[in-house]
Specification:
Length: 180
Amino acid sequence: MYYSTNYLSPICPIMLASDGTNLIGLWLEGQKYYGGTVKDEMMIGNDDLPVFITTKDWLDRYFNGQKPGIDEIPLAPIGGDFRKEVWNILCEIPYGEYITYGDIARKLALKMSKPSMSAQAIGGAVGHNPISIIIPCHRVVGANGSLTGYAGGIEKKVKLLEHEGVDMAHLYVPSKGTAL
């Protein structure tokens, strides 16, 4: 059985999903793949689940400029082993900083004892992250500083990075592309 509830953030409404114990989803309204990892029906409005209370408190603190830790919430994103490895690397990106898809590809290749890894494959895994904000996929940018590739929408990615105080001087929104 899966459960869901809503949270109204300063950037948009958010849907949270849980298996009853762990957070399995956090999707921004209008996000690509919204709810996509949960194939079963979700019971709506279970605001009193401890994981939802903890997550909403985490989000309140985050949007109030604090830096809550990822480890404060029991996370159980649904996905294959490759995606989970990428999401684990996302969890290592410090608040207010960013890395590139290529950086993640190099880290994962090293971890898997491979000579290289495709940045495009990394992009696919990052884009399918089912727990936005907390697993900070918004902190991943293109090698040239492009802010492309955020399933929640580029404008929300910019807001999240600005909220965290990221130096945006070398980052830009591309004028065209497939992931805008």
